[in-house]
Amino acid sequence: IGSIRVLHRPPRRTKRRASSAAPLTTSRTMRSTTSKLIFIAVAFAAVFARGADAAADAACDTALSTAYTKAIGSSDCVASGSTCPSACKTAFDAAETACKDKEWTYDGDNSVKKWNDDAFTWYLYKVNAGRSVLDKQDACDSVVHDFLIASVKTCKQGYTLAVTTSTGVDQLFYCTGGGGTDGSTCSDKCQAYIDIMDTTCTVGESFSTGSNDVNYDGPTAMKAIEENSPEGCKYVSTKTMSPAGALRASLAVVSAVAAAVLAVA
After folding, report:
1. Which residues neighbour 14 within 8 Å (Cβ) at sequence distance 6 or greater?
2. Which of 53, 58, 169, 260 has the lowest tally of Cβ within 10 angstroms?
3. pLDDT digits (tens, 9 = 90+) for 2-34
4. CA 178: distance to chain centroid?
């Protein structure tokens, strides 16, 4: 992601079950930033296979590099109040056009991925993580949000996005105070990150998150996500499964959430 600056800033939202609305201490701010970095590192190791076995498209990789540079280090993706320059979306549109039906290089593990199937990795673990860690988040994250939501193609991706709303990770802008989410209010964009899990997953659908196997059950999964995510949001599923299946799903989901949302160092 490049050089990382640890910044001390006021909290962007009310923590769950907080006893006071007083500003975070410098120590807690540093621990929050450390938590983001640990989450990203674990995601690299646990979610994605290592080693490139195919050649990526050079034009696609170039377009992604250009868009990423604009996302974290250019005025093209710096908002003025609530307005994001049109050049920000233009950069992502160009990347989408260049990478459609192509393969791209994910430098987190030097793997080559199919853009149509896994643009999600780039938007979440490259663009979103970069803007979060480097403290670049602002109204231009609405552009990132739209592309991130559109990139979710599988239950595993929807589940991963829902897990990332965790207040222990504090990475998704619209799930923080700065993005309009706190103990009593949930940004519609943060709510979308949660709801998309139930939209993309079917009851009983199974997938691996590295060391954990998840057998999806809507209500149980939502309950597990709720334990770590913003208090102002809603965690409702329209899907159910048998009691026996729900028990197996509960154990798998709780275990996976615990692995992804690490304790603050």
Report:
1. 21, 177, 182, 183, 231
2. 53
3. 433 333 333 444 434 333 333 333 343 444 444
4. 16
Q: What are phi and psi of 192, to 5 degrees?
A: -65, -35
Q: State how far the Cα of 67 lies from the Cα of 73, in Å rounded to an integer.
A: 10
DSSP state string for 67-133: HHHHHHHSGGG--BTTB--HHHHHHHHHHHHHHTT-EEEETTTTEEEEHHHHHHHIIIIIIIHHHHH
Residue with tokens 């195919």: 54
Cβ(191)–Cβ(25) below 8 Å: no
Asked whether residue 236 carries a pLDDT value surpassing 80, the answer given is yes
Rounded to an integer, what distance in angstroms lies between the CA atom of residue 69 and that of residue 106? Answer: 15
Residue 205: left if φ>0, alpha if ψ -120 to 50, beta else—which one?
Answer: beta
pLDDT of residue 108: 84
Rounded to whole angstroms, how far apart are CA atoms 118 and 102?
Answer: 11
Look at residue 54 in the predicted model and tell me its pLDDT.
Answer: 64
Please tell me the predicted confidence (pLDDT) of residue 217: 87
Bridge-partner residues for 208, per DSSP? 213
Task: Report the C-alpha gap between 77 and 173 in whole angstroms.
Answer: 14
How many Cα atoms sit within 13 Å of 74 on the Cβ side? 16
At residue 243, the pLDDT reads 55
41 neighbors 260 (Cβ within 8 angstroms): no
Burial (0-12, 13-18, 19+ Cβ within 10 Å), 132: buried
Q: How far apart are CA 108 and CA 227, in angstroms?
A: 29
158 to 97, 102, 149, 250: CA distances (angstroms) = 23, 22, 9, 17
